[in-house]
Amino acid sequence: MAESLLVEDLRVLVGAVEAVRGVSFELGAGSRTGLIGESGSGKTLTALALMGLLPDGLRAAGRVLYGGRDLLTLPDDELCALRGDRLAMVFQEPMSALNPVMRIGDQVAEPLMLHRRLGRRVALAEATRALMRVRIRDPEEKMRAYPHQLSGGQRQRAMIAMAMACAPAVLVADEPTTALDVTVQAGILRLLDELVEAEGTTLLLITHDLAVVASSCDRVLVMYGGKIVESGTVGQVFDRPRHPYTRALLDAIPPVDEDLPDRHLRAIPGSVPGLGRFPPGCPFRNRCPNADGKCAEMPPLAVLGDHSLACWHPVEAGI
Amino acid sequence: MLAPGGGGHLSSAEVLFEVEHVTRRYRLPRTRLLGPRRELVAVDDVSFTLRRGETLGVVGESGSGKTTLMKMLLRLERPDAGRISYYGASLTREVQVIFQDPSSALDPRMRVADIILEPVRVMRLPGDRRQRVYELLDAVGLPPDSAHRYAHEFSGGQRQRIAIARALAPRPQMLIGDEPVSALDVSVRAQILNLLEDLRVGFDLTLVLVSHDLSVVRHMCDRVLVMSRGSVVEEGPTREIFSAPRHAYTRLLLDSIPTLKNRRAASA
After folding, report:
1. What pairs with residue A248 in β-bridges?
2. What secondary structure letter does DSSP report for A170?
3. What parts of chain B have a pLDDT lower than 70?
4. Is the pLDDT of residue A319 over 60?
5. Partners of B71 in the beta sheet?
6. How does the average pLDDT of chain A come out, rounded?
7. How many CB atoms lie within 10 A of CB A261?
8. Could you tell me the CA-to-CA distances from A9 to A27, A62, A83, A306 in Å, in that order?
9. What 3-state class would DSSP assign to A307?
10. Do B242 and A218 touch (CB under 8 A)?
11. Chain centroid offset of residue A215 CA
12. Local structure of residue A249 (DSSP, 8 states)
């Protein structure tokens, strides 16, 4: 069953540096939200913080509300009971997320034994069905295989089977197709789409690829420098972007259906600053064509219906 | 006299590479002690002509043989069968390559000036080296004071500029870009693609772009080779390949690219 998740003023501290700087959003029950960001934007840390999976030494502050409880302050045993059952995650590199010395079948059966209290034999039978649902060829044989014996696409399917085994309410997928070939990526995205649709799962899809979000999500969050700079529906953000960063990103992608004069793209000047090197105030201001003195102060999030943006000098609507 | 794909008669002055029926096999290790030795045909009977001044895109998925083909052009690998003819003067000097990950392609202990001049030094090319460094930094859009810094002090995009400057140092006629923007941030990719295009025009370069990103190839290239399982399954002008693909694999590849315009039904 779908449930919503509410993130309020989430911050992640890497030592003294704030990598995620006060992020708030809601994942509506059964909605599909894409979180777009480049390296250093804080998108992966946001995901790990939601799941209570931040590496040692990193601290999260703020609130992550799910089912009336704050996941950030939940005791470990209660969080463990939720994770893998109600909340699940799919990672970019299945080879490092799967246990290399454990058979695929046992790994997919594990959440079922743990959260559903199924006996081993029943859980293994259920795991075989889970592998069928993700359309792994020869599921019986793959049950006995180790991760290295599977192709990249099959490993990702196995990880999705594992994440979806207990029909989670919320699925967080962090760059689930980035390491895959484009035809394999298309298959995985179709599969995620079907499973999420069938179970009514709330999806947070994290990626740097805007087109992946356009084709799989209803809503978009655009992150830069640890902040959400713009959010709204796919149509609002991609067709009528208001934040100069979103607009510049969309302009910088080579179009697939038109020829540009002189083969020149509208490039964004400069590069993404490293962690802790973003300018104070608006993180995009040193690369932004609209920036002026006012941008030294962080603009508040302006809410226009369900379209929000944080910018003193937004791009005119309708251009 | 030229192999298929030439599209008419070309004189040798117009041709830079002629690849004829090239095959490259690798012997795989046994999977069982007494099992059979298997073979992988990485490149299987590939023929094409690379014309001077053109921009050729090579697309295909992992294992399609793109990289093996490029290694053979660079003579880093020898074909088991077939022939590759180069019609320039000195392949080692004239054909340079840029890799995907600039961080692993640059020695972190060397100063940028030394990185850029390495090919000039190794090939003992004449000329004022000091002046050449500043020319090259300027050509790739890096400030002159970059010369004395180390590669790790630069961002990913700037490191790729350093790698491009090094590739330009021996005054090549041709650049091979093996996924040159895949490891870069989306907001930086366009800068590097624009730079490659400016350099191509400015230095009259032949450009071969290997990429799994079809939008990059569509944007940059005149002609495309589509590879699958070691073979060239389709070849032609970029516009034709993208608007009217003939081979089923090309169609599959094109249908698989997510685009900003293809929305989920519910969100329309």
Report:
1. none
2. E
3. 1-9, 12, 265-268
4. no
5. none
6. 93
7. 5
8. 14, 5, 22, 18
9. strand
10. no
11. 14
12. H
3-state DSSP helix/strand/coil % of chain A, to nearest 5: 35, 25, 40
The structure tokens listed for A114 are 């743990």
Strands A58-66 and A5-14, how do they pair? antiparallel
Segment A16-28, tens digit of pLDDT? 999 999 999 999 9
Among A250, A242, A248, residue whose Cα is nearest residue A316:
A242
Question: CB of A267 within 8 A of CB of A11?
Answer: no
- B33 close to A (CB below 8 A): no
Decide: residue A221, CB within 10 A, 0-12 exposed, 13-18 middle, 19+ buried: buried
> What is the tens place of the pLDDT at every residue in A78-128?
999 999 999 999 998 888 889 999 999 999 999 999 999 999 999 999 999
CA pair distance B238, B215, nearest whole angstrom: 11
Phi-psi region of A226 (alpha: psi -120 to 50; beta: other; left: phi over 0): left
Asked if the C-beta of A157 comes within 8 angstroms of chain B's C-beta atoms, the answer is: no
What is the biggest distance separating any 2 CA atoms in chain B, rounded to whole angstroms? 64
A264 touches chain B (CB under 8 A): yes
CA distance B74 to B211: 17
- How far off is chain B from A240, nearest CA to CA, in Å? 13
The verdict on ipTM greater than 0.95 is no
Rg over alpha carbons for chain B, rounded to the nearest Å, is: 20
Sign of CA dihedral A277, A279, A280, A285: negative
| Interface contact flag, B190 A266, Cβ < 8 Å | yes
Alpha-carbon span A170 to B123, nearest angstrom: 59
User: Cβ separation of B186 and A38 shorter than 8 Å?
Assistant: yes
pLDDT in tens, B229-241: 999 999 999 999 9
Exposed, middle or buried: residue A210 (CB in 10 Å: 0-12, 13-18, 19+)? buried
| Other CB atoms within 10 A of residue A211 CB | 18
Contact status, residue B95 vs residue B73, Cβ threshold 8 Å: yes
